[in-house]
Amino acid sequence: MGGILLFFCDPVRKTGCGEVRRMKKTVIFGEIKKTGPEKRGGEAGRPGEAGPEKARMEKPSRRSPAVGNMHSPDVRSPRRNKNDTTTMTTELCAYSVDACLVASRAGVTRVELCASPWEGGTTPSAATIRLARRIPGIRLQVMIRPRGGDFCYSDPELEQMAGEIRFARSCGVDGVVLGVLTPDGEVDAARTAALVSEAGGLEVTFHRAFDMTRDPLSALETVIGCGCRRILTSGGRNTAVEGIDTLRELVVRAAGRIEIMAGSGVNAANARLLADAGVDALHFSARGWRESRMRFRNPNVSMGGVGEVPEYATMCADETLVRKILKELE
Fold it and tell me: What's the structural domain count of the chain?
């Protein structure tokens, strides 16, 4: 998050996505979002388009009464996926409709729908949100982040985020994912609370902008005060395993007031270890790479202007890897 991405490729191998080249990166960017009043009545408007009236909404409660204390082993968030057989709430970071279909088939509890994987996730397109919402069996969370880079936003960017929240609500999503920081590395309480209010009754996840704060324990209290439902965090480190001690402390400090979801570098080899740290959910992308069908490939052009980003491979959610993670959590 907020760092430079460095990539290198392993040899080509076969995965659930087909022929792929796996890529590794040294720094993982976070995600961010904004909210605004919802357009009421009629068809969904475009992001940033306000309805005839701005609905006044009470700040949502941090947790639905039906959910209760999320640290209780027998009380979990509602699930709609009949294929979900795990004892841990799971969330797939999905960059496509295809990835959402993988989540539905495999039995993942939730999907965090994003665009722009090379920037760590930005707001997906209107059509992508609509198509993903039609997929049965998953709870759909939509990333609200107007750009890559840091999480300190201008007023126009915040207004854009507000419009994107309104649009997501009109599509019937279950939640939004966002994060706003001050220049001094603290959670921007006023702006975050305003976006939570804009989300109305939707679940709000404060994403890994949390890991860019100067004091995670102070940030925890601020996020709770803003009314967010959960925090996605790696414990302030590049991977959740590296930050596992902080994750444990956050769980204790949260004391059931907010969900703590561990993310970054989660895989089948460490899923049980992280679950045993007491977190409420695990977030993972299970990334694979699908080779392009292009036979002619121009070696002289990089459309993105970054040579390390592959022109002839597409990131996908590897269903085999997803199922291995879920198997470890049964």
Answer: 1
Q: Which amino acid is at 259?
A: E
Do the domain assignments include residue 9? no
Per-residue pLDDT of 109-160, as tens digits, reads 999 999 999 899 999 999 999 999 999 999 999 999 999 999 999 999 999 9
Residue type at 222 in one-letter notation: T
Look up the domain containing 234 and give its range: 23-39+88-289+311-328
Residue 64: inside a domain = no
pLDDT tens-digit series, residues 213-269: 999 999 999 999 999 999 999 999 999 999 999 999 999 999 999 999 999 999 999
Nearest to 33 by CA among 126, 166, 127: 166
- Please spell the DSSP secondary structure of 8-30, one letter per residue: EEEEEEEETTEEEEEEEES----
| % of residues, the chain, pLDDT over 70 | 72
The Cα 253–Cα 211 span in angstroms is: 16
Question: What secondary structure, in 3-state letters, does 137-152 show?
Answer: CCEEEEECCCCCCCCC
Residue 16 has pLDDT above 80, yes or no: no
Task: Say if 92 falls within a structural domain.
Answer: yes
Residue 156 is part of a domain; what is its CATH number?
3.20.20.380
How far is residue 186's CA from residue 212's CA, in Å, rounded to a whole number? 8
pTM for this predicted structure: 0.74
Q: At what angle do helices 216-226 and 189-198 cross, to 10 degrees?
A: 40
Domain presence at residue 69: no
